[in-house]
Amino acid sequence: MSFIVAIVGRPNVGKSTLFNRLVGKKLALVDDTPGVTRDRRYGEGRLGPLEFQVIDTAGLEDAAPDTLEARMRQQTEAALAEADVALFMVDARSGLTPIDRHFATWLRKSPTPIVLVANKAEGRQGENAAMEAYALGLGEPLAISAEHGDGLSALYDALAPFAKLDEEVGDEGAEGDGPIQLAIVGRPNAGKSTLVNRLLGEERMLTGPEPGLTRDSISVEWTYKGQPFRLVDTAGMRRKSRVEAKLEKLSVAETLRSVRLAQVVALVIDGVQGLDKQDLTIADHVEQEGRALVIVVNKWDAVDDRAKALQEIEDRLSISLQQLKGVPVVTLSALTGRHADRLLPEVMKVYERWNRRVKTATFNKWLEGITERHPPPAVHGRRLRLRYGAQLKARPPTFAIFVSRPAELPDSYQRYLVNSLRETFDLPGVPVRLVLRKSENPYADNDEK
């Protein structure tokens, strides 16, 4: 990325629509409701041959200090300071507002170069309306339609001078598997954004006492002890019965998508409230998606009887989350930072387990031993034979066993096999998949070859 572009403006002028247009995918939530975006969101933008980093920001509002709107504006100010150029968007369809004029005055004093963009300027009438923005004193407005892609050639001409023509691209990220994709999920107000800010060492995410501040899934790239991470802070997930508003349904859908794209999921729960049914539902969804899991018990400094609280959490997990037996539990305080340094080492451990591979010879030696100690039961008077097996893939660890009659192997014995796999090959906290395949007599097949 050769330069950074921030998109700023009052709520509902189409900033997130332009952001999605520039990055080429629907990363930011878009809705008619003003104020959907609250945190600043980063993406890799492209406009013709230009490549740049683009920042979507919260809507600018004139608000009193110590309010949610004021904290949102601070996020926008941080993005503006970071950017090489800012696109100040106004709505050509609705015309200039006092808020537009107020922030145009503020932006004229900014050292960051400003490009004035009049959005929703479809057709001749829209272009004529865009000319009204001349009054803001920020130069000639660019008439565009972010939704339909009109006017992007003019935007290209405005941004091209900011491109640094460096040919030193480098091979960054060519080695290894790239960053660990870590999603931070949980119920509203569990402290997810506060935790991300603590891990990054900056006020990167908007936080406050109001539940549900985060609506988008916000991605941040970052390195810890030489290991690159891509952290994703997600919207809080309520029970389905409480997900009523269209916007909240979009947020939950985005969170579920973030889990699907993650490699490790940190489920943040409120230590004072304990493990809720909704927390277990989220954990079960993580397991179904085949992702590694770490339970993060936040607000631990506010818990009175910590030994009792931790025992209750572990008991509940052992009963209700048997499919992720041994999932790691990290207690910390995101607000004060106490024990926050315990989380990422645990994430790296569980990521390594999620990638683990077992040699075929080692696997079959295990299979032979476990079936000798505890043979599979006879069904209808006929003994089931587990002949041989191998690991099919990692991420999550998936194993196949060839069985004489796979459909008849009881679920209880399959759980026994999975638990033994988890214990023998050190796989706590990650899903383990077991696939049963039909094999009449593989040894006879081998003899024929």
Q: What's the topology here?
A:
Layout: E1 4-9, H1 15-23, E2 41-47, E3 50-56, H2 68-82, E4 85-91, H3 98-108, E5 114-119, H4 123-130, E6 142-143, H5 152-159, E7 180-186, H6 192-200, E8 218-224, E9 227-233, H7 246-261, E10 264-270, H8 277-288, E11 292-298, H9 306-320, E12 329-331, H10 343-354, H11 360-373, E13 378-379, E14 382-383, E15 386-393, E16 398-403, H12 411-424, E17 433-438, H13 442-448
Parallel strand pairs: 1-3, 1-4, 4-5, 5-6, 7-9, 7-10, 10-11, 11-12, 16-17
Antiparallel strand pairs: 2-3, 8-9, 13-14, 15-16
Describe this structure in words.
The chain has 449 residues and is α/β, with parallel strands linked by helices. The protein has three domains: 4-162, 3-Layer(aba) Sandwich (Rossmann fold), CATH 3.40.50; 180-354, 3-Layer(aba) Sandwich (Rossmann fold), CATH 3.40.50.300; 360-448, 2-Layer Sandwich (GMP Synthetase, Chain A, domain 3). The protein has helices spanning 15-23, 68-82, 98-108, 123-130, 152-159, 192-200, 246-261, 277-288, 306-320, 343-354, 360-373, 411-424, 442-448, and strands at 4-9, 41-47, 50-56, 85-91, 114-119, 142-143, 180-186, 218-224, 227-233, 264-270, 292-298, 329-331, 378-379, 382-383, 386-393, 398-403, 433-438. A six-stranded mixed β-sheet has the order 2-3-1-4-5-6, with helices on both faces. The protein has a six-stranded mixed β-sheet with strand order 8-9-7-10-11-12, with helices on both faces. Strand 5 (114-119), helix 4 and strand 6 form a beta-alpha-beta unit. The longest helix is centred in the middle third of the chain and has 16 residues, at 246-261. It starts with a strand and ends with a helix.
